[in-house]
Amino acid sequence: xxxxxxxxxxxxxxxxxxxxxxxxxxxxxxxxxxxxxxxxxxxxxxxxxxxxxxxxxxxxxxxxxxxxxxxxxxxxxxxxxxxxxxxxxxxxxxxxxxxxxxxxxxxxxxxxxxxxxxxxxxxxxxxxxxxxxxxxxxxxxxxxxxxxxxxxxxxxxxxxxxxx
Length: 164
Known about the structure:
79% of the residues lie in helices and 0% in strands.
């Protein structure tokens, strides 16, 4: 790998590390929020729809922003029955197959179709359908094409690193 690619890869990995740390804080916020929702609902008899929507938005954000880091750390779902029995060459072959025949086409499809979806949401500054819901649905929908882009970048970094 050339110095330019190495530098770019390092910057991208730093971005993914920062995103993973941010997702950790989002997870803490989600746990506290969900605990509060349960206490409010079942012990105090009060319910806030905005809090339930915020929990949903936090969950979506954690998944969509953290998936690239998970891929880089090789912590994504794999079929361990076959994968564990393979050597380094088999792992590399499976990784390439998954990257070029599964990840890239799937993420390109998500990116292409979700970009229009997100842009349309931005054009009307889409909010919740519920009266007391949150106004930022367009922000959450923006995370979908960003997720696809992050996964493509993480997949490329993984492929480049497997060549080393």
